[in-house]
Mn-containing catalase
Amino acid sequence: MFFQEPELQYEVTVEEPDPHFAKLLQQAIGGQEGEMRVAMQYMFQAWALPEEYEAYRNLLMETAAEELGHIEMLATAVTKNLRGSPTEMSDEAQETAAAAASMTGQNPRQFLSAGQSAMPVDSNGVPFTGGYIAASGNLAGDLYANVMAEATGRTLATRLWEYTDDPGMKDMLSYLIARDTMHQNQWLEALETLEDPVPVPASFPQEEENQEVNYTFISTRREPQSDPGYPWTEGESPDGKGQFSYAAEQPGDGEVVAPEPDPMTNNEPNRTDETSETDASEE
């Protein structure tokens, strides 16, 4: 259940509207690093958790609802950057979307499809897709995915902060960057409360996995290389269940030969008479 209040989670002001920056802000709404992604990701993760995980479900849903507020903030910022901004444009230029887009650098669809408003798309105008969402049903795996999502989201927000000179936009982005800091830390802390966060899933019996390679770093170089002595090629593994080792080459075995396809697939190519004769002579 959701409730809404007619106010923003954090004030959004734009001192100098910039349609081009509005286009860039779309990435923080509907892009792969955006707020739509984490809001939906945290919700679907929460909805998959059974009753005994109530504390984690609440953590996920509280954060998901907060992210919805971030979408609202960013949509407001996009609209404020678009509307009333092209003061230098002539009346003739405003008559055509193509001219407006070329002069302001905005996404044409923000004018054509949304009337100078935000859209559920990225900075290139590509619609948001649920393919960005990681919700595996495994709490540990999802928490690791959430750390990554917040890390890429914070990286995007810092790039937007660096790009703009507008004090209002910097203030809003400073708030979002700070929340990304908190969210990264809360997911990491939640992982610490799990008894066996790695390897994921912890419920699978490790004795069933290949014991010869489960903690071995395998080099894929053509010529065998000596052990570089990195932390991931020697010493104890982070899960405390194995010792890292180094293999100079891949195991290698078997041939890449596909079985014959079903005749109904019509996969058999037409062969020339010369090829047929060659095959016959070989037989």
